[in-house]
Fold this sequence. Notes:
mainly alpha
Amino acid sequence: MTIKRLVLFLMTAVAILFTGSSLLSSWLEPQYQSRLELYQTDIILQALSGEASPNSQDSADVLQRTILGDKPLESAAKQYQEVRQEIAATLEKASKGEKEIPEQSFKEQEKLLGEVDLRLGVLQIQQGQKETAFKTWKTLQENKNIYTTLNETAVALTGIWSNPNVILPNAQELIQANLDGWFRFSAFEQLYKIQQREEKLAALRASQQVIAENALYKLTLIGIVPIFGFLIGLGLLIFVIAQRLMKGKNSLLAQNGEIGWATPWDVETILQVFIVGFFFVGQLLVPLSFQALIQSIPELRPTGNVRLQAVYVLVTYILVALGALGIMYFSLKPFFPLPEGWFRSRFQGRWFLWGIGGYCAALPIVTLVSLINQQIWQGQGGSNPLLQLVLESRDSTALVIFFFTAAIAAPLFEEILFRGFLLPSLTRYMSVSFAIAFSASLFAVAHLSLSEVLPLTSLGIVLGIVYTRSRNLLAPILVHSLWNSATLASLFIFGSGSQ
């Protein structure tokens, strides 16, 4: 064994240990899926608070029932109760030492529990369950680990719905600071009624009517567009599978299905690109160097500044991509000119149709896998931290930067590396089908979140099929970009719905 191979072997072992450790660590982290579901529930409640125009009462009622359901308040309360039980169970296990949770994550979960209790009480009040709501808020008041302002807000809410009413001097400030959306509207409506502030109450309801109409539009967009794509994708899957069964090797799905690539390099080159380029340079050297630079210049630290956070994420990602692709270039340079078909990216042909079709086909597949995945992980397993940043961002400039990172930079880099290089390289040692599955698995694992492994593997398989059949790297890049763009759009709509 040469020194180069020995070093590469040791680096591979370190990379495997690091990746395994990161995946295990993500096991202890909460997903953002529960938070996303609550955001959607909040938009439903926003839409519920409006009144239909007298001229369009029937159509408006039908639309509301279709989108919001027959019992939206009961459904929302159930959703919040389920999330509360998940959080409480996690915190209880952590307190008993049955489950290890990082301190920062533990504090975030405690705060989220307090926020959920505040909102759950409002939902219970609006369903006529006053005593149940008071018990919910009393539990929050007695929990000294929860943020003080949340405890005080629970006292304020109990007061304005008590009989006789008790209004704290800072009740309005507490409600403004610790509730938003429909929950803030409900609390302010009750407060203004007690105070007999008719002008304020009229202005509040007028403002809420506009918000409710906007929320209904958002729900229509969130619900109808994905469902439309889902149905198209389901129909497309049925068509290509039926065609494959009927036409066999002459079918669209079988096109180039078993034709590999002429690969002049061996597994040592593959490891060199991924272990040295993607892992050591991309995952360790670049991020650690960039973080050290940021720490040495306090003005550049992104803490608390969402625009700086967005720039930090983008610059880090570009440096990671350049480092990994640079190693790939120098690793493949001895084999130039490359055989026919490598990294083919031509604007001619049907790559656009493959991209659109691949995205639609991915919708039902990944959705089904995600539903199963949620049952497996039950709110744990970690998530991409970019999701929370986008979800909670209110800065349009930051959102544009996040969009560029996720919808343009990420698809270009990841498709060149995983579909453009890894998948074809593996066809030297295995069939195209196994190469698709193996490269998709590595693509999912590289995101370092256990909860994302199954959904991303299924997405990676679709991306691999699209690339091997179209033989044009632009097709999976388009699928990847559309997928990330749709995710970002949903996050933006969810986040804006709480305002």
